[in-house]
């Protein structure tokens, strides 16, 4: 097993609500892109063995070259495991010719009920070496903050 990156956050919403936000095309387009990016889903099949393709576009690509082009990251994501409302495991492959971003990264999203809502833990395994650890963990934390805002507004 290669490198492992992690991030987590408590979200003020029940696990079923948080889980549902990972299996809704429109919600993913809103909250999954980290700060400084926007996302568009091109293909959508929300079932085990299915998946989606997301095009992430840098709002300002200066100094942050994309993996697929100067301004974009294209990632094909497969749903490896769906265990409502406890876990979503995804296999992500970047569209790139750069071998430092090659391979399949697994993203496991785990949800545990707490008194405050849901503790969400994201574990990325087999992270390609071209992805900077600090930037990746900050990106996951940013997506988690976006997820929290999205589901907490919907719940409130």
UniProtKB/TrEMBL annotation:
Domain of life where this protein originates: Bacteria
InterPro entries (UniProt xref): ASHA1/2-like_C, START-like_dom_sf
Similarity annotation: Belongs to the AHA1 family.
One Pfam family, short name: AHSA1
Record-given protein name: Activator of Hsp90 ATPase homologue 1/2-like C-terminal domain-containing protein
Domain (Activator of Hsp90 ATPase homologue 1/2-like C-terminal): residue spans on this chain: 12-152
């Amino acid at each position: 097993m290669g490198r492992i990156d992690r991030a987590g956050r408590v979200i003020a919403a029940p696990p079923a609500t948080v889980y549902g936000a990972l299996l809704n095309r429109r919600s993913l387009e809103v909250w999954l892109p980290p700060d400084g990016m926007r996302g568009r889903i091109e293909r959508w099949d929300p079932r085990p063995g299915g998946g989606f393709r997301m095009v992430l576009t840098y709002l300002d690509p200066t100094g942050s070259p994309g993996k697929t082009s100067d301004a974009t990251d294209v990632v094909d994501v497969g749903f490896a495991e769906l265990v409502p409302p406890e876990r979503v495991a995804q296999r992500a492959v970047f569209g790139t010719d750069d071998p430092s971003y090659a391979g399949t990264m697994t993203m496991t999203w785990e949800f545990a009920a707490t008194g405050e809502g849901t503790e969400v833990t994201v574990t990325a395994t087999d992270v390609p070496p071209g992805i900077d650890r600090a930037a990746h963990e900050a990106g996951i934390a940013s997506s988690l903050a976006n997820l929290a805002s999205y589901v907490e507004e919907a719940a409130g």
